[in-house]
Amino acid sequence: MESLGQFSDDNFKRKHNKIFVHNQATFVRNILFDFYAILNYILCLILKKGHFANKQVEQINFERLVFVVQNFFSALASVVHLFLTLYMYVVIARAVMSWFNPNPYNNMVRFIYQVTDPVLDRVRRWIPPISGLDLSPVIVIFAILFIDRFLVSVLRNLAR
Fold first, then answer.
1. I want to staple 74 with a disulfide (CB 3.0 to 4.6 A). Which of 35, 57, 142, 159 is the partner?
2. Does residue 123 have a pLDDT over 70?
3. How far apart are the first and last CA of the chain?
4. Rounded to whole angstroms, how far apart are CA atoms 41 and 57?
């Protein structure tokens, strides 16, 4: 036989879960509406219309639109920064692996070679190894740092 306390806890959990799902659905609906509004606004700018295609979109709060666009650029800047940082670490791992004789059949070694070879080979075509010293990882790392500082700062400034 269930106790009264356990029964009331189950009711509380069910009620709380319904409220959470309702709030989550409302949040998703608002995000989708904002995304639709952004696309509609961009379409109107491209087509040079003076009015929106949908009457509901006319009532959009442009501060909310700016908020969504700013958050998009901020998130994009974070993702680009993370991707470039991870790729830089993979290039560093490739450079360190060149000092040793790693097993070429190891999955991790093969992955690192497959990810870095296209970029390093292009740099090696421009700057061949000097006296057996391959400078391509250093040049790629400097390029990654430059792109990271430039592109991420531009995206973050767009988010302001």
1. 159
2. yes
3. 60
4. 9
Under DSSP, is residue 7 helix (H, G, I), strand (E, B) or coil? helix
- What residues does each domain of the chain span? 1-60, 65-160
Distance (Å, whole) CA 54 – CA 36: 10
- Residues 140 and 91: beta-carbon distance below 8 Å: yes
Label residue 125 by pLDDT band (50, 70, 90).
Answer: very high
Q: Per DSSP, which regions of the chain are E strands?
A: none
Identify each DSSP E strand in 95-134 by its residue range.
Answer: none
Contacts of 92 (CB under 8 A, 6+ apart): 137, 141
In a 13 Å sphere around the CA of 123, the CA atoms on its Cβ side amount to 18
Output the pTM of the full model.
Answer: 0.62
* pLDDT tens digits, one per residue of 70-118: 888 888 999 999 999 999 999 999 999 989 989 989 999 999 999 999 9
Joined tokens for residue 15? 């009620």
CB 120 within 8 A of CB 140: yes
Q: Which residue has the tokens 């690192």?
A: 112
The pLDDT value recorded for residue 10 is 53
